[in-house]
Amino acid sequence: MDPDLTGAVGKMLLICFLDVQQRPSRNIALRVAQQADSLQQKRIMVMMVQAAQMEETVLKTWVKESQVPLPVGIIRGEEDETRAAWGIRALPWLILAGRDHVVRAEGFGLEELQNRIEILAKE
Questions:
Q1: pLDDT tens per residue across span 73-93
Q2: How many CB atoms lie within 10 A of CB 4?
Q3: Could you give the CA distance from residue 93 to residue 17 in angstroms, rounded to a whole number?
Q4: Cα separation of 32 and 34, whole Å?
Q5: The 12-18 sheet, strands edge to edge
Q6: Which residues, other chains included, contact 121 with Cβ-Cβ below 8 Å and sequence gap of 6+?
Q7: Element containing residue 58 per DSSP (H, E)
Q8: Which of the 8 DSSP states describes residue 52?
Q9: What architecture is domain 11-121?
Q10: CA 63, 80, 112 angle in degrees (round to 5)?
Q11: Is 95 left (phi over 0), alpha (psi -120 to 50) or beta?
């Protein structure tokens, strides 16, 4: 399950690293999914990344049953190395990149998302 990034040109990116085996990650995934249409209208591409070891079929089943309308990928290989490379300190972990795809904010809570989007939109 590799997200298709062809539609990301000129859009902000919201990347949500999570572990759907944990309640906080499932909660944030569902809350972000509820905002999918609103975020898309603001020209923000959202993707989720399962950042802990998990069977891909189990992840696909959860995505389908939870009706998550967003691309969901999974880290292949060493999860710890990938999380370290992205600077992820905990799961779930939100990263917001500007239209140039340079990371502008990370590790913030979902309640801060709208404010951070507004700040980036002014740049």
A1: 999 888 889 999 999 999 999
A2: 10
A3: 5
A4: 5
A5: 72-74, 44-50, 12-18, 93-97, 103-106
A6: 42
A7: helix 56-65
A8: S
A9: 3-Layer(aba) Sandwich (3.40)
A10: 60
A11: beta
